[in-house]
């Protein structure tokens, strides 16, 4: 079972439009509503693959109740932590060329008691989990060290930890030695304090995160592919994408694919890339099912192309 933790979940509304014209009335051609947040998306992708998952998240107000209802309708078990503030609502506008405009609300401010309740529930429910995926930004009221405490408690319960966050929260959590961290190129550059222009730059940055405590680094390099660096070496993988419809939740789907396949080694990397490539070809934050995957199309390389320039260098 894969347990996910989403400290700042959301109710996500996605609209597909012919074009986004500022100041004009824009008529959507399609719309959808999904439970949102990075950990929630991981649970949705795990459930779409037919594997068991439990989503732990703080929920408040009518939007929070709707998030729980939508997750239940998708067959996802929820361990809600009641909070006084209202769960945030986010809006995404998708254009035909793949351009996505997102408006993310800040979300509620958690009290110290609510923050501790969330930690306690994770500690209690981690005992039966193969993996605990801790994902997303921290809401107001939670210090950057909160993820470090969560990693420590989940490890104490015997679970392996996958951490997908950034900035001070990521750096603070590394001291507790998460089993895998999943930055994108921009987050990886931010963590090491310098730009990344090549795949080799990303490998060096990932090795630095391992020196700081991460057992493994699964780095998403956007359209260029994904990189896995652990104690046994480095692997690089790519997959073709015909049409990008939406990248919302694609990284989360990728992390789910990695964990479903065991969470270690090149086989898990190939699964991560296949899930990410499938997700970007689906509308909104829809998650791929096994029928959407094309594992045979993944190119896996043990000889990492260090000199390959990144299509989108990370500043």
From TrEMBL:
Residues 17-290 form the Carbohydrate kinase PfkB domain. Keywords: ATP-binding, Kinase, Nucleotide-binding, Transferase. InterPro entries: 1-PFruKinase (IPR022463), PfkB_dom (IPR011611), Ribokinase-like (IPR029056), Tagatose/fructose_Pkinase (IPR017583). Its EC number is 2.7.1.56. It comes from the Bacteria. GO terms for cellular component: cytosol. The keyword Nucleotide-binding applies. Gene3D superfamilies: 3.40.1190.20. CDD domains: FruK_PfkB_like (cd01164). GO terms for molecular function: 1-phosphofructokinase activity; ATP binding. GO terms for biological process: carbohydrate catabolic process; small molecule metabolic process. Transmembrane segments: none annotated. PANTHER family: 1-PHOSPHOFRUCTOKINASE, 1-PHOSPHOFRUCTOKINASE-RELATED. This is 1-phosphofructokinase.
């Amino acid at each position: 079972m894969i347990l996910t933790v989403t400290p700042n979940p959301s109710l996500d509304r996605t609209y597909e439009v012919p074009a986004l014209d500022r100041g004009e009335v824009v008529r959507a051609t399609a719309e959808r509503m999904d439970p949102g947040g990075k950990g929630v998306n991981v649970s949705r992708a795990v459930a779409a693959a037919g594997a068991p998952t439990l989503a732990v998240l703080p929920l408040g107000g009518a939007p929070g109740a709707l998030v729980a209802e939508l997750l239940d309708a998708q067959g996802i078990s929820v361990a809600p932590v009641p909070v006084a503030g209202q769960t945030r609502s986010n809006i995404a506008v998708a254009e035909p060329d793949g351009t996505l405009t997102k408006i993310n609300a800040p979300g509620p401010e958690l009290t110290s008691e609510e923050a501790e309740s969330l930690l306690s529930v994770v500690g209690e429910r981690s005992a039966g989990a193969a993996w605990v995926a801790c994902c997303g930004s921290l809401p107001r009221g939670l210090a950057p060290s909160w993820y470090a405490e969560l990693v420590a408690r989940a490890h104490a319960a015997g679970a392996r930890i996958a951490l997908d966050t950034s900035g001070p929260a990521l750096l603070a959590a590394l001291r507790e030695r998460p089993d895998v961290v999943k930055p994108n190129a921009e987050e990886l550059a931010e963590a090491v304090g310098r730009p990344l222009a090549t795949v080799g730059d990303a490998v060096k940055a990932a090795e630095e995160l391992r020196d700081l405590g991460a057992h493994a680094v699964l780095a998403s390099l956007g359209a260029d592919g994904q990189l896995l660096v652990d104690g046994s070496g480095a692997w690089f993988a790519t997959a073709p994408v015909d049409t990008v419809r939406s990248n919302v939740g694609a990284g989360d789907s990728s992390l789910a694919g990695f964990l479903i396949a065991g969470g270690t080694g090149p086989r898990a990397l190939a699964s991560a890339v296949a899930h990410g490539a499938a997700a970007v070809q689906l509308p909104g934050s829809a998650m791929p099912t096994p029928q959407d995957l094309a594992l045979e199309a993944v190119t896996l390389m043990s000889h990492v192309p260090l000199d390959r320039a990144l299509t989108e260098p990370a500043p």
